[in-house]
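Dear Dr. K.,

Following up on our conversation at the group meeting, I've run the structure prediction for AsnC family transcriptional regulator from Kibdelosporangium phytohabitans. I'm pasting the input sequence below exactly as I used it, so you can double-check it against your construct before we proceed with anything downstream. Let me know if the numbering doesn't match what you have in your notebook.
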Amino acid sequence: MPSSDPEFDAQDLALLRALQNNARLTVAQLAEEIRLSSSPTWRRVKRLEEDGIVTGYRAALDRRALGWGVLAFIAVSIEDHGDEAAKAFEMAVDDLAEIVACWSVSGDSDFLLQVVGRDLDSYADFAMTTIRRLPGIKAMRTIFTLKEIKPPTAWPIP
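The predicted structure tokens came back this morning:
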């Protein structure tokens, strides 16, 4: 797990920007981009991985091309706020592929789910037959996205 206040030099920051922009760059390409030789660049990448700053490498996929036409956020309130009830909800959510992200949140809701559906009918079926039956659900409110203006792709690098 990364420390709460990591210290990075300019080359670390450049390396993180480069990796976030294109994780397929070779060590030689990364080294050229951050103006360092290959061996020190490779060591920096390994250190960032070992320190838990770089947690993996993924391909960015287009959800629509995969057939997921609906993207929604569901604010969920649960009845019981004990650890056991929350864990049961979290484990149930983790098993559902259509729920692509889940956050524990403050405010009027307890959890915020990011959910995909093939179309409105399949989303409605999933919401009514699966999500409503998750353990401990008291209330849910869906917010449908109309347009993706700035989908999450990268974290800001200072």
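Two things stood out to me. The radius of gyration is 20 Å. The first strand starts at residue 70 and ends at 78.

Best regards,
J.T.
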